[in-house]
Specification:
With about 170 residues, the protein is of the alpha/beta class. It has a single domain, classed as Rossmann fold (3-Layer(aba) Sandwich). Helix content is about 30%, strand content about 10%. The chain has a 4-stranded mixed sheet, sandwiched between helices. α5 links the parallel β3 and β4. It is globular and about 40 Å long.
């Protein structure tokens, strides 16, 4: 799992991850990461950058769009009617199956959002980024990234996530 400030993605060791499934939870924040031209112009995604850095690994993007506190609070056993879904994106079907099994083991269903190129649909500033998991009266904006209580969270169904993914807009298309 790669969970680091994106500006440091080139520091991820290549050889130990050769042939491995790597979960990418990164998000791009220019104010933290500096400007990365290909992300600013939306000609690639954060996960595609990581995949290019780790060409012999199999990257799957997930868990980047859920607040860390909600990740723990919303986990439910398989079959629970309040079990949430997490979007995944990747270019390798077997890697996505591996990550789906992992998500199941920690209490989540997976919703396949397509290849890595579609991972932008649940990156920051999209309808699928964090907000679906916030409960009534709480929001990502209210936490201001400063550790404010994000509330208990709410379950996110596959239908809710599909709608949020479909509503995603790229800056260049606005």
């Amino acid at each position: 799992m790669v969970t680091i400030p994106l500006h440091a993605y080139r520091s991820v060791p290549v050889e130990p991850l050769r042939g491995k499934v790597v979960i990418d939870t990164n998000n791009y924040y220019p104010e933290r990461d500096g400007h990365i031209p290909e992300l600013d112009t939306e000609t690639t995604t954060t996960s595609e950058l990581l995949q290019a850095h780790l060409p012999a690994s199999r990257i799957v993007k997930t868990m980047n769009n859920i607040f860390s506190v909600h990740l723990g609070r919303l986990a439910r056993p398989s079959g629970d009617p309040e079990r949430s879904v997490l979007a995944i994106a990747g270019d390798d079907a077997q890697a996505k199956q591996t990550v789906t099994a992992f998500l199941d083991s920690i209490g989540y269903d997976a919703l396949d959002a397509g290849p890595l190129a579609e991972g932008w649909r649940f990156q920051r500033d999209t309808a699928a980024y964090s907000e679906p998991y916030f409960s009534e009266g709480h929001s990502l904006a209210a936490t201001n990234g400063q550790g404010a209580d994000p509330g208990p969270g709410r379950p996110v169904t596959a239908e809710t996530m599909r709608a949020a993914l479909a509503a995603a807009k790229r800056y260049r298309d606005m």
